[in-house]
């Protein structure tokens, strides 16, 4: 049994993304509509995800495009306000992801009581956001310093829109990441949000580190649930829950229910 059962309540867990619209300071923030509009959108999506039966949610500033690797204070403050106001509505375990800043993600987790964070903790990358460096040793020491040792760390080892500066096989990345850092989970992604995670790559990672939780991080859909969950220990799901399967749309509760029914069937649970 993995930690997913203890923290989220089930194996083969589905962590649903609750994407925040552009926030104060972001290029696409709508100052006329203000934070109330961002909050209303987030609340609608959260309620739809929970009504649809997801196992957990992860709040992220998905529309803070283009992303920073050293996130500014106003972003974290805005996210904390939103999660704080949503707290009475949250009925499932939740995590946070401040794109793309591992320390700020941990800061937000401590402030809100999040159970897990997903981030790029290791590696040096050539990315759409420039040369992208990390410092995992400093990050995990920061985790301990702020009292976040109980927060689970989900290591994204195939960052979206980026690749290692020096070519490395995925098996080497998985093996060294686990040996050096003892991550709580490895996340394997496609190229962008909504892009299917390559099942062959997913299997190579899981075969290399069988005792570590491995999550399909992008692109799980109704038509590939069985194939992906046969390999992965769970998944992070965002775009497929949106109306028409489009990244920029609201969550569609009917799509969530249909997907989760398929997941429950896979887990051997009788769905009415």
Automatic annotation (TrEMBL):
Top-level taxon in the UniProt lineage: Bacteria
Pfam families registered for this protein in UniProt: BtpA
Family that this chain belongs to: Belongs to the BtpA family.
Protein name listed in UniProt: BtpA/SgcQ family protein
